[in-house]
């Protein structure tokens, strides 16, 4: 599923749906810590280099082990467990970034402030929380990242926005990956509602030619839809009417 940004015919604000129940590929390219090892016939020449690589392997054996579980990640994981009806799914959900930001401290905000100043218009600053959620699946002992989602939360206005969704077709499991994506989105709605948010804004845009968002590369077998905007609109409309 491509990423998320412009909307169903313009940006669309909707009430956050109440979540009262959990709703129910290309060869993997694992995140591997060794990219350019100094090798000779499959062996690393320098012992010191090998020691460095070995330590690096130990540090990155689990790309997510050092990340603490947050309430949002725990809720998403719990709902995935329910979706899979107790079956092993090897999925790990991590909130890899969560921070309160001032708009004026971002590159976009600084640019906007300068532009308004040039035209004699007052710049009004505001704060929001930015979250980045990533989902991994263990495959052959490696953690494979296949889904990313970023959101912004505006507490004073009691609304939040789902800014970007991006995925690659590396997920493998007994449940269709679209169902997994849906469960993750529903789980965020449920979490946002639980901490006081009342509306969600979804920013939707199809990937253009040669455009990328979170994922720099995609499997050659990954098929993009012939009518991406139609597919994305349909997908998000379904999320808002479950």
UniProtKB/TrEMBL annotation:
Its main location: nucleus. GO terms for molecular function: chromatin DNA binding; histone acetyltransferase activity; transcription coactivator activity. The keyword Transcription applies. Pfam families: HAT_KAT11. It is found in: Nucleus. It is an enzyme of class 2 (transferase). PROSITE patterns: CBP_P300_HAT. Residues 61-242 form the CBP/p300-type HAT domain. The keyword NAD does not apply. It catalyses: L-lysyl-[protein] + acetyl-CoA = N(6)-acetyl-L-lysyl-[protein] + CoA + H(+). Residues 1-14 have a biased composition (Polar residues). GO terms for biological process: positive regulation of transcription by RNA polymerase II. Keywords: Chromatin regulator, Nucleus, Transcription, Transcription regulation, Transferase. Its EC number is 2.3.1.48. GO terms for cellular component: histone acetyltransferase complex; nucleus; transcription regulator complex. Residues 1-21 are annotated as: Disordered. Transmembrane segments: none annotated. InterPro entries: CBP_P300_HAT, Histone_AcTrfase_Rtt109/CBP. PANTHER family: CBP/P300-RELATED, HISTONE ACETYLTRANSFERASE. This is histone acetyltransferase.
């Amino acid at each position: 599923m491509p990423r998320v940004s412009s909307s169903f015919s313009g940006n669309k604000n909707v009430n956050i749906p109440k979540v009262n129940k959990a709703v129910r590929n290309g060869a993997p390219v694992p995140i591997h810590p060794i990219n350019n090892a100094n090798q000779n016939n499959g062996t690393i020449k320098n012992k010191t280099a090998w020691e460095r690589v070995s330590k690096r392997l130990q540090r990155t054996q689990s790309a997510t082990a050092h990340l603490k579980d947050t309430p949002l990640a725990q809720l998403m994981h719990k709902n995935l467990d329910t979706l899979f009806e107790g079956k092993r799914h090897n999925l790990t959900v991590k909130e890899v970034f969560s921070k309160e930001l001032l708009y004026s401290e971002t590159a976009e905000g600084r640019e906007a402030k300068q532009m308004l100043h040039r035209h004699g218009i007052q710049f009004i600053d505001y704060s929001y929380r930015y979250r980045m959620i990533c989902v991994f699946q263990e495959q052959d002992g490696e953690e494979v990242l296949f889904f990313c989602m970023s959101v912004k939360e505006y507490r004073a206005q009691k609304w939040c926005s789902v800014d970007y969704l991006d995925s690659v077709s590396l997920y493998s499991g007994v449940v269709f990956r679209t169902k997994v994506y849906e469960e993750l989105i529903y789980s965020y709605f449920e979490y946002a509602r639980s901490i006081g948010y009342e509306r969600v804004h979804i920013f939707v845009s199809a990937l253009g030619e040669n455009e990328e968002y979170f994922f720099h590369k995609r499997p050659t077998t990954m098929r993009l839809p012939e009518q991406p905007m139609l597919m994305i609109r349909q997908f998000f409309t379904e999320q808002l009417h479950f």
